[in-house]
Amino acid sequence: MRKLLIILAILSVAVLCFAGEDIRDEIPPIAVKHYINGMQAEIEGNLDRALSSYLIALNFVPDDPELLRTVADLYMQMGQPDRAFEEYYILIDLYPENEYYRVAAAEAAFTMRSYDEAERQLEWLVKNTPPNFEIHIQYALTLVNLNETKDALKALKKTAKLFPDQPGPFGLMGNIHLGRGEYRDAVEAFQKSVEIMPTYVRGYLGMAAAYEALGIQDSVMIAQEMYVSLNPGNPEVNKRWISTLIAEGEYDRAVEAADDYLCTVPDDWELLRNIAFMAYYGEYYIRSTEYLSRILEWDATDREARLFYGRSLLHLDSVGRGIEEIETAIAQERDVDGLITLALAYEAADSLEIAMDVLRQGEAEFAEDSSIPLYQGILHARAGDYDSAKLAFQTSLQIEPYNIEALFGLGNALERTGHRPKAIEIFRELRRENPEDPLVANYLGYLLVEDNRELALADSLVSFALDLEPDNAAYLDSYGWLLYRKGEHAEALDFLLRAENLASHPDPVIFEHIGEVYEKLGKTELASTYYLKALELNPEMEHSKERLEELK
Questions:
Q1: Confidence tier at 98 by pLDDT (50, 70, 90)
Q2: Of 46, 254, 382, 386, which sees the most CB atoms within 10 A?
Q3: Biggest CA-to-CA distance, the chain
Q4: Phi then psi for 264, rounded to 5 degrees?
């Protein structure tokens, strides 16, 4: 626009000169010549030459307002607000009622952080010119920079009345209250700003900060989510949102949000890596596999990424590829974690002997680590070899006397091998040390029910576990079996049928319990059906065999 005006000015001068008329009688021709030279230089982008020409012209007509304004504007354009302010101030002395000169002077003063000068000009404009939103807001901002926040709030309240459809005054009020530690007042101001304009993003951002200062985290998340939804294409906003979700433990939502962000910024390797592991732990194995493969394309030496890539493949039933990746990671560096992962991979491939060989190698290499015998015990238990499992768990406990997983495994192995009293003592110890663990509470309660003693204690233990996880099939089975022991057969059946429906896979123990209850209720045909279902899953269940034979 300014270039167009300059061109029009040059054409006007040329026309007037051609007509033989002076532009202004008081402006010498030499001044006009230098002025035109300055305009030409400005069009060409040579601001230094333009300024030199204008200053020469100004020597001949020092009080010419258009020339003074041209020089002042050029100083601003060249990043010299102090020099610009001097010229605007001369203009204000000559024409104190000129609004443009005062606005420009205020801008120059604000730019060079001479806020008292900016306030002087803006205050005059607020009092002597028609209401202008930008001027009123700039006046309030200047007062804030002068630490006159009380006056700034008064000015903003007046601005809000003059411009009721503008959210900005309330947004700025909210920021002032934030700075003064008046967080509830800040929330109120930001809420008014978004009531006026629901898409006012700064209002939601400020509201989130105020709620965070008040410790109202749910409201922080709501405000931040609104802010993010209004900035869908802003990668920085999305990244901050993902970080917030991670900090709040909202891992599922963080993984979802990261999908969109990583499409926009695919090379943010640090975030990609964090999200890849988070996706794995959140059981988003397809995503974790995709992300981890991208990381390995970027850095093939990232051993941890390769190890987890192999684990993700295992969860996707790509066992062969998973084993290959895990073995590659182990070749980079042998450690306990890698060897255990490889053993579990071979177990998943139905190669239990190879899995045990891997763990034996690990036992020789890392004799002081309790994890190797722990996992030997776990694999033996999964294979139904509870005697070997018991010995492995005892070895783990010799290395680390209070390894919770090993103690739990040992208690389970003792119960499975007919040493229930010893198992109960171990689970009593675990319960004392882990009173909030529902798994331990349920197992101890179930063992007491199996032993048909201390049923009141068993009731409290299993009820505690169910309160925490009301849809846990194992806990429902325990409580149903407890009710059976107490002779409450109809109620027991309700719990056991719920356990059957909620179990992640068919459970022969639940089937046997249901068969027992149906038998007590006189429904022998149904009882036989469930005993048979139990035996189909586990032919070694002697009690089901006996009952089925008895009912024939």
A1: very high
A2: 254
A3: 131
A4: -80, -40
Q: What does the alpha-carbon distance between residue 448 and residue 442 come to, in Å, rounded to a whole number?
A: 10
| pLDDT at residue 26, as a whole number | 64
Q: What separation, in Å, do the N-terminal and C-terminal C-alpha atoms of the chain show?
A: 101
Spell out a b/e string for 106-133, using b for 16 or more CB atoms within 10 Å of the CB, else e: bbbbbbbebbebbbebbbbbbeeeeebe
Model pLDDT for residues 161-200, shown as the tens digit of each residue: 999 999 999 999 999 999 999 999 999 999 999 999 999 9
Half-sphere exposure of 147 (CA within 13 A, CB side): 0
Rounded to 10°, the helix 201-214/183-196 angle is 160
Length in residues, the chain: 552
HEC letters along 363-429: HHHCCCCCHHHHHHHHHHHHCCCHHHHHHHHHHHHHHCCCCHHHHHHHHHHHHHCCCHHHHHHHHHH
Among 4-13, 346-355, 502-511, the range scoring the smallest mean pLDDT is 4-13
Report the C-alpha gap between 27 and 177 in whole angstroms: 55
Residue in the block written with tokens 């304004």? 69
Q: Take residue 124 and report the two structure tokens written for it.
A: 């005059």
Which amino acid does the sequence have at 533?
K
Quote the crossing angle between the two packed helices 133-145 and 99-111, to the nearest 10°.
30
